[in-house]
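Researcher: Structure for this, please.
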Amino acid sequence: MKPDNLFSAIPIALFVFVCSFAQHAPDKNKWIPLFNGKNIKNWIVKINHHEVGENFGNTFRVEDGLIKVRYDQYGDFNDQFGHLYFKTPFSYYHLSLEYRITGEFHKSAPGYAIRNSGVMMHSQDPRTMRKDQDWPISVEMQFLAALDDGAPRPTGNMCSPGTDVVYNGRVDPRHCIDSESKTYKIDEWVKAEAIVLGDSLITHIINGDTVLRYSSPQIGGGVVNNYDPKLKIDGKLLKKGFIALQSEGQPIDFRNIAIRIIKPNEYTKR
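Model: Predicted structure, token format:
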């Protein structure tokens, strides 16, 4: 069940800023490509049960100008969840990318990962993750494609490994919060955007429609396992972090990954 008032917890000033930013900022700030279409030399791989930097099974590969996530060199999936991190952390930014969920799900991956992937934001540095840590402490913009049952399945949801967010006026205990997006089919390209304002407001946009807003991303919650306990300081607000593309058993393609930096004081001037 979805809360009755999606925006009741969002400060009015921030809401006005996001609306204004979405309409006017593209003419002011340049987009910076994060993916050059040729290689992933500016990215860092971390896959569960492997050391940072080991691209087990060539999970993340570049073909046809796309970052492709594949599992054809895997045996048993063995919870080898992976993430591909851009090398630089960010704080205030507008992220844009296109994704396409495709191919055959790895049959030994967990069932919840069918036609499921995402991009992590405000993630911990992959070099601080332990070898057997399954997920980074982060906030995920979850990507889902329709199943074959005809039921609605929104994309651009929020999931929270090792984190919490404020939604509808309170810290929401759910691991995932559904967005208001449409349902998209497998093999369909979808444009996903996130406007991230440090530790204040985060907005998810799918194919040009604002589908979810929440605030105060912070360390907390559960789901993440085998982390360094010194890093999991529950209640600590996340002001910045790494962006990471996810692999969890479902093939997916990414393209046109770019970012536009937002000045932290920009919205106070509007």
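Researcher: Any notable elements?
Model: The two ends are 35 Å apart (CA to CA). Helices lie at 12-24.
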